[in-house]
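Same chain as my last thread, 162 residues:
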Amino acid sequence: MDEELKALLESAQGEDFDWRNLLRALQHRGYPSGKEALKALRVRMKSFQTAMEASTRNLLAAEAKGLFARHPKLESFAWHQYTPYWIDGDACSFSSNMGYCSINDLNYYSEPEDPDLQTAARDVRETLAIFDDAYLMYQLFGDHKTVKVNRQGIFVETYEHE
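reply #2:
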């Protein structure tokens, strides 16, 4: 995509944007209609999304490997990600809940008693904060899932909740 077109797309915000200029620029580049241009943009966006998901999964695996190397007592960590079924009448939205991770299959809401595991738990939470993007975690692992990471890899299971 050339720089002029990229600049037009980046400025495509707000009520003042002149969509006719964008359409003319796309037609000048061989797209016969706005529909064809939109299809081309969707293909590029899907390609970007696929690359981002693969990069994120690889980065998560690499960060996990570092966590396990730094914390020999750390065997696993996991989190639940889901859309609640009911929140007192409020709109329900998906959350990855990465701040509430379990360490070595311990309770999600309690700290490990071992000081080494307490340090590991803090390190895990700080590392997972990098990845705490609801849209991306939904795309990677899905809704109503438990994501467990151990030395062998990343595993996803169905999560049953109220």
